[in-house]
Amino acid sequence: MIRVVLPYHLRTLAHVGGEVSLDIEGPVTQRSILDALEARYPMLSGTIRDHVTQQRRPFLRFFACGEDLSFELPDAPLPDTVASGKEPFLIIGAIAGG
Amino acid sequence: MSKVRVLVGTRKGAFILTSDGKRAKWDVDGPHFGGWEIYHVKGSPVDPNRLYVSQTSGWFGQIIQRSDDGGRTWFQPGTKPGEPTKTPEGMPMGESNKFVYDTSPGTGKPLTTHQWYDGSQHPWEFKRVWHLEPSLTDPDTIYAGVEDAALFRTTDGGQTWHELAELRGHGTGPKWAPGAGGMGLHTILLDAKNHDRIYTAISAAGVFRTDDAGRTWRPINRGLVSQQIPDPNAEVGHCVHRIAMHRSRPDVLFMQKHWDVMRSDNGGESWQEISGNLPTDFGFVIDVHAHEPETIYVVPIKSDSEHYPPDGKLRVYRSRTGGREWEALTKGLPQRNCYVDVLRDAMAVDSLDKCGVYFGTTGGQVYASADAGDTWAPIVRDLPGVLSVEVQVLP
After folding, report:
1. What is the domain range of residue A28?
2. Which CATH number goes with the domain that contains A25?
3. Taking a C-beta distance cutoff of 8 angstroms, is the pair B316, B333 a contact?
4. Contacting residues of A for B78, CB less than 8 Å apart
């Protein structure tokens, strides 16, 4: 069971309160997590990655295990602790600054 | 007694303002979608409780929301959670927030680039929906004007959106350029007498018309003069801020251009300036009285470098002669130290006997007049900056 933490506005859109738990068959990667997330919560399609290019939206980052994984390849395996559910996969919105 | 519902889009959410037909006491409901930019909220003329919202964010992109109960509850009209997102053939099901430019050989053109600020060519990149225009006859059909400028349509209540690609593809697209606020298709006017005719306006390209429901388009900018561009009389490249029509006279159009207030009496074939005695002819909004097709409203703004009213006085100007002769409407509006702007989609009129006029400001005020502009009062003063105002009259 994979644990995913969404930013506030995406939790509101998906009508979820806290972490999201997802079952993923096969390798646990950024792409497989986002595929599973969008399949379960179709309203999130396009909010994390572009509809066409599948690129991460520029103001979002992917963190896990204290590491910024945003620039890892989408099909690269995520850490075992994420795959086992021990650590969550964090989707983080950039701070606006000011 | 009739009920009036004002739909307000702001920088940080949507608000619904309601009153009875006297339009004296108002209830303020919101924010809906708090923290999101709400470019536009509009109801279907054939089912007023069917509302559509453009909800957008620099972080998360474009969302379309819909209400079937007048704004009490909302949902994204795409595939519901738990339902298959793909057909058995593998095709995507409804994705209500998916706006993808049509580049298919059959209907699209190469459609690859438009003019960038430095004169080079730049790829089209979808950013957001600026304006939603529900069909006059079908609550499931809505047109969406988007940035970068293109026209989309849904015929299934917002579940899926498809581009009317011939607008971008008719030939002048590579000459379109963004204004300072982006290259948005911001105005969509549907002809109530001829359902095949649609007008659209784009900053900074101009006005375009189809007479065959979107299959072919052509620019209709003859008479517009823009001194800021290399050829002031160019076929396209004009920064049109807003156009408006009275439903009973769809061939008569009024325009607030970047500079100049204009009118056309022949469906946009030619335009004449009607700025007349306005203190400045820069501005964004323009609208037409619900029952007097020659009565029009603008809010003059000092200049394109100073986006606030002249002399710190917020004044609506009304012409009862279809332009050229204007009177300032000031009663109830701040006449000192007022430096707000009124953006292009932030004025609306209601259809009650004594026509109501409404507008919102970048300072978060929404003003209403229940007597066609003679007197004004704020409905609410401290909303986030107002992006759009629409009004509905309910039985």
Report:
1. 2-93
2. 3.10.20.30
3. yes
4. 42-43, 45
